[in-house]
Here is the input.
Amino acid sequence: MKEPMTQLPCRVCGGNTFAHHDVLWSDLIAQWGLSRSEAQYINVQQGTCCTACGSNVRSIALADAILRHAHATSTLNEWVEGYAAGACNLLEINEAGSLTSVLEKLPGHRLVRYPEYNMMALPFENGSFDLVIHSDTLEHVPDPFQGLRECRRLLRRGGACIFTVPVVVGRLTRSRKGLPVSVHGSEGCTDSSLMVHTEFGADVWRHVLDSGFDDCRVVPYRYPAGIALVAGVS
Ligand SMILES: [Zn+2]
Here is the structure.
């Protein structure tokens, strides 16, 4: 899969310069069964960063999807200062990459973290939020369908769950049940909260629809490295 030669501006801050470092290590690439080109775009997703604000392609893709859902043409930094954003009740489940420091400027922002809060059973009323955001969390949740059903339950009509997961676009989703333990984070990391339960593939949209959402949009900022999903409630 060829990566684009040009890099679009950062959707968080508008920056135009990027730096890259590889983040995958050989054991993880082997466990995940990634080809060279797949490892290359996952490295871009996690390790190509805006030099102005530090956001990686994954976080920028998430920001881009939030802005497109809100029909905003501004950067995320500008959007959170605006009137429309001010009226938005947003639940962030675990820190969404570099976006937390931006999203927390919203008056209606609420951040919950694992293990104090479990995505599969959240203590909020039905229809409490306009947006539910998470980033590279769902692959670590033992039952991703239940995680998404909880997000769906918490949303009002017209709301959306906007999220990223690392997607290997040329294959189907597989569970790691029965396979050797695979942990994200960094080489040698044994943090059980970063254990991978699901490796998502091209059928990731089925998880969204099977969890009760009314639609699923795949929003590319930089395909295939930087894509986000918008799971809508109508
Ligand atoms: Zn930036």
